[in-house]
Amino acid sequence: MSRFCPNCGKPLHNDQDVCLSCGKSVAGARHNKIAAGILAIFLGGFGIHKFYLGQAGMGILYLVFCWSGITEIIGIIEGIIYLCMSDEDFAAKYH
Ligand SMILES: [Zn+2]
Q1: How far away, in angstroms, is 32 Cα from ligand 1 center?
Q2: How far, in Å, from the CA of 89 to the mean position of ligand 1?
Q3: How far is CA 75 from CA 6, 60, 72, in A?
Q4: Within-domain flag for 43
Q5: I want to staple 72 with a disulfide (CB 3.0 to 4.6 A). Which of 1, 31, 45, 77 is the partner?
Q6: Whole-prediction pTM
């Protein structure tokens, strides 16, 4: 998986938390993406990842339908999507 600095677009190493080209911290987006993915996969049925991403309205919708089991399946799919997304896409979409 190759990563690029969201600020200057220079390639980054996977374990790099600060861009060597512009000095911007790039750890935040990566951390949030993985946390959101894990929350979605394990607690997605309750919409916890939606609350985490600041989409409280969607989170409540998940809570309302969590008895059905459908939200659990959607949560797992969303978690996989989050984890497969590039850091830039995730940061652009969910900040
Ligand atoms: Zn940079």
Answers
A1: 19
A2: 16
A3: 26, 13, 5
A4: yes
A5: 45
A6: 0.66
The verdict on residue 16 lying in a domain is: no
Q: How far is the CA of 16 from the centre of ligand 1 (A)?
A: 11
* Closest of 84, 87, 75, 73 to residue 31, by C-alpha: 87
Per-residue pLDDT reduced to its tens digit, 24-68 = 877 655 558 889 999 999 999 999 999 998 899 999 999 999 999
With tokens 């991403």, the residue in question is: 53
Domain hosting residue 68, numbered range = 28-94
Position 36 in a domain:
yes
Cα of 22 to ligand 1 centre, how many Å?
4
